[in-house]
Amino acid sequence: QIRRKTLMNNKFTTYFLYGIGEIVLVVIGILIAVSIDDWNQGRKEAKQQVEILKNLRDDLKHNLIEIRRVHAEDSAQVVKNRLLLDFMLDPASAYHDSLQYYFGNISRYDVFSPRKMTYEAVKSKGLELIQNQELRSEIIKLYDEKYPLNTVMLDIRRDIHINTIKLNNKRFLTMKNVGQMVPNSFAALKQDQEFTGNLSYIAAEGANFEAHLQSMINQTDLVYTAVVSELQNLDSQQLK
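The chain above was modelled as a monomer; its predicted structure follows.
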């Protein structure tokens, strides 16, 4: 109605200014709507990021507990194998029943399988959901480089175990408990260079596996600490 009256009174300048004003109002309305939409999207992504980081934190905490457990067992087994090797190389050593447990566990090992459900889910959605670029890089290195190496190490350990079982089955009688083995002839076993050679190799290789697990502990702990720190930063930002 205002435009119609303006045109009827030949006030073209006023009509033109009024039209510009309407356009400006429409543009401002669109910008406000876009800003609100961006704000809502930002809040949604921030909430999603916090949820992702909390789940990653829980997964990493679980992984740390498991790696440390396996590392402790491996370290103990390395010590036992070295003691057994020294015992077998000692000309004065004599057989006793406790050796059954040493012989039965020479190549036995526990397995660490990293929990990575959260990471795989985030990869499918886009790792950019984790906004801290440095943290994102460390997470990727852990899950896509360090943890896959664990699979390679486990394959090596499996092959060692299978070969050792084949070798030992010719020299030992396995008791009801698979972790107990009695030598067919202890005197012959002490002179068996193939057996002592394999035992020395397992003891040395065990130290490498132990070092690998320690490396995984260090990197997992580093990422876990960084995730916890990022959650604390995000929480403090929300309070401001």
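The two ends are 49 Å apart (CA to CA).
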